[in-house]
Amino acid sequence: MADLSPSPEALKLITWHKWAGITILALSGLRLLWRLTHRPPADVPMPAWQLRAAQVMHLALYGLFFAVPLVGWAYSSAAGHPIVWFGVLPLPDFVPVDKALADDLKELHEMLAWALVVIAAVHIVAALKHQFIDRDGLIDRMRPGRG
């Protein structure tokens, strides 16, 4: 997003990016509510270090699911570019317009987004390892209607 040249097409892409971010933030809230009200499935037997790594990964993913869009929203506010979700719902600015703050938040948003990409990729590779190398049924726990 940061490398787009100013144009009508870039404005459209940035607007869609903001809509996606706010949607992800809302869905993350719903997902967190679900997790807090529903017990996770029993753990698949695995070494303690893998179980701990999975717990840390889940915490990092949840944290980044909230941090990335919130920092993006703050950046948009600081840059003086309001967010109107799907062109219908204007969202409040929660930081004042401040160019220096906007520059810092833009960089933080980008770093957090890349951290999310890396952690999600590692998480996916670990799940695939459990499915195809360990064959321990870990992915079956995610299937709807599991027993």
Whole-Å distance between the termini?
43 Å
Mean of all residue-level pLDDT scores: 92
Give the tally of structural domains.
1
Rg for CA atoms: 19 Å
Low-confidence stretches: none
Helix content: 55-70%
Query: How would the global form be characterised?
Result: elongated
Largest sheet: 2 strands, antiparallel
Count of DSSP H/I helices:
3
SSE string: HHEEH
The helix-and-strand class reads mainly alpha
Give the percentage of residues in beta strands.
under 5%
Q: What's the total number of strands?
A: 2
Biggest sheet strand order reads 1-2
SSE blueprint:
Blueprint: H1 8-37, H2 48-78, E1 84-85, E2 89-90, H3 99-134
Antiparallel strand pairs: 1-2
Helix pairs in contact: 1-2, 2-3
Please describe what this structure looks like:
The protein has 147 residues and is mostly helical. It has one domain (8-142). The chain has 3 helices and 2 strands; from the N terminus they run H-H-E-E-H. It has a two-stranded antiparallel sheet with strand order 1-2. The protein is elongated, with a radius of gyration of 19 Å.
Short descriptors:
two-stranded antiparallel sheet; mainly alpha; 147 residues; single chain
Short description:
By secondary structure, this protein is an all-alpha fold. Helix content is 66%, strand content 3%.
